[in-house]
Each structure stands twice: as C-alpha cells, then as structure tokens.
Design a protein that fits this description.
The protein is of the alpha/beta class. It is 38% helix and 15% strand. The structure holds pyridoxal-5'-phosphate.
Length: 389
Amino acid sequence: MTPHRPIIYLNNAATSWPKPPEVLEAVNRCLALPPFGSGRTTGTEGEDYITLARERVSRLLGAGPPEHVVFTQNATDSLNLLIQGFIAQNGDGCHVLTTALEHNSVLRPLRELERQGRIRLTVLPFEDGAVSPGSVEGALAPDTRLMVMTHASNVLGSVQDVRAIGRVLHDHGVSFIVDGAQAAGHVSVDLRDPSIDAYAFTGHKALFGIPGTGGFWIRDPETVAPVRFGGTGSSSCSLLHPREMPERFEAGTHNYPGLAALAAGVEFVRTTGPEAIAAKAERQAAFIIGEVTQEPNVVVYNDRPAIPIIAFNIQGMEHEDVGFILARAYGIVSRTGIHCAPLVHRAIDGGNGCVRLSLSWFTTDDECRSAARAVREIAAHAHSQVGPA
Ligand SMILES: Cc1ncc(COP(=O)(O)O)c(C=O)c1O
C-alpha cells in the first residue's frame, strides 16, 4: 500500500526506505522466473543470484575470497552464529571483551553465554562516542580470546577505529568479530587489512536490500564451528554436513529473492560511491544538528556523527511524545526509545531513551530542512509552555 500522504522517512537506521528501483526490479524478476537453483534443479537458464550476491558483497567489503561470504537471515543471525560457533570451537571458560556501544544482537548472545557460565565478559565503556584502543589493551587478560564490537553505533552514529583496535587484539592473539550492521554501505570497509577476523552485515539497511537478508565474512572458517546443519544441495550422500565454504555455515533453502535484492543494492552502493554517500550523509546530519541545537531546550547526544544519525531529546518532553508529534503533525517518521542499545542510553540519557532521526542516500535536503524546522517548532512550543521558575 502506498502511504496516503507523503511522508518523510527518517528511520533508515532501522530499515532503509525507499529502495533503489533496481532492487525492486531484481526481486520481481527473480520471483517471476522459475527457481533454477544452482545444483538443485535440472534447469540451467536461471541467473545465479546467490553467487552474484556473494561476489558483489565480497568486492564491496574488500573481502576475499567470495566463498568466505556466508548468507544468513540478518546481522543478528550472523552474530549468533559467529559468537556461539567461536565458543563451540575454542571451548568454554575464556574471557571475552565487548563494549557499551553494542546493540542487543551482540550483548544478548554474549550475556547468555555468561549466564550459562561459559564465558567471562567485560564490557568496555566509551567516551565521546568511541572506545579507545588503549582501553581495549588495558582490559586484556591472559585468557582473553575474543572481542566483539560494533563498527558504527546505531544511536550515536560514531564509527570505531576497528583497524587500530584489531591490531592491539592481534598482537595479543585475540580474535575480533565486528558488527557492521550500521557501517556497511555507509563506511568504506577494507577487509584485506588483517586486523578483523569476521565481519557481520545486514541486507536491509544501508546496503538497500530487503529484510531477511544478511551475512558475514570470515577470514579463517576453521576458527568457528558450524552450529547449523542440513541440506545444501551438495555432497548429499554424506550424512555429515559439508565442511567446505560457504556450505560449512549455510543450511537449507536461501532467501534467493532477498539475495537478488542484496546483489542489486550492493551494486547501487558501489556505483553511487561509498565516498559520495558518506559525504552527503555527514553534510546533511551536520545541517540538522546545527539547526536544532539553536533551540536551547534541544539536547543532541552526538554532535559529529560519521553516519547520518541524530540522537536527541527535547527537555521537558517525553521522547515518545516528540516522535508522535513528528509523525502526526509533520508526517516525519522517526524512532524513539532505547534502540536495542540499552548501555548506550544508560551512558547518555540515564537509560530513558531518545528520539533518533536517521537518513539515507535518498533523503533530500528539503526533507532535512523540514525535519529541522519541525523539531525546532516542537521545541519552541515546549519552551513557551514552561512557566517562569
Ligand atoms: C549496530 C547494529 N547491530 C545489529 C543490528 C541487527 O540487525 P538485524 O536486525 O538486521 O539483525 C542492528 C539493527 O538495528 C544494529 O543497529
């Protein structure tokens, strides 16, 4: 259903919208044709969307070889497979590092392992949106085996120096899993640098795919045990799951319309240019922040985001009410609350949550002006309601 009035969609950090026309065409084309899955039918005319998607993701991330790109349902699924598979491979009882910037898709799998008594977990604080390599080094213990951290915060839009942190970890023989759910598509990623061991991504955010797609890239598959087994369309006589890549981590029928969309979305990002995407995002976010902070009662929690996220509150108002007014009175879609990142909110707003505006390549300058104006009007009205002290 088409929205009955124009909306300004500023919830792209949750799921990007609109999608490039090529993405919609790819899904339609894929579903309109018979499914000739490579190795699984006698039909040969079909396009191999899965291989295409693997090659394109691998190229965008500077990651080789393409078979080391594994497809999953989303970033959460990828992080679960990587974290649980790492502990299954390396044994219980080790020390794991993570950070207070994480999304629950990192925190909850780790906390669950900690609750089961299988790992010891240290959560590193952040300062000014970033976790420093020095604090990582200071937290290492003789039994530290793994660090899991986000590349870009979904609340603060800050990009972490994963390369420097990875070097510290590697010097001490610690493996490094990076959550690229927010970064892939916004930030240039070059996995040729040896500091990262595995990189999780999602399809439906800045890569412009559709929900239900994602994956991870892994440098050395032997470091992570597979925890999912089943049909692969290969080595089918064997009752054991193949150990070759990418089948090692993939079981069952792929979401191939979703992977056709992902292949198209990744190509869109590549041809648009990650640098152009990043430059526009930074400019537009800085514009909105510059505007809304002219109101004395607007508190912005991230003054220089590298990816286009603005996290704020209006003093004296609940974030849900601000979001409600933005939607109802201005047709602006934001997101309010804790954003699945409880420790970030504990640090920035006492754990209450905030309003988040998140932009995409398709966000226009006009939409940014309208959003800034709307926030300023709501804030000015709230200010005028506060009587003299
Ligand atoms: C930083 C971060 N990690 C992981 C996720 C989970 O992504 P998905 O819902 O695609 O599993 C999100 C989604 O909001 C996120 O922002």
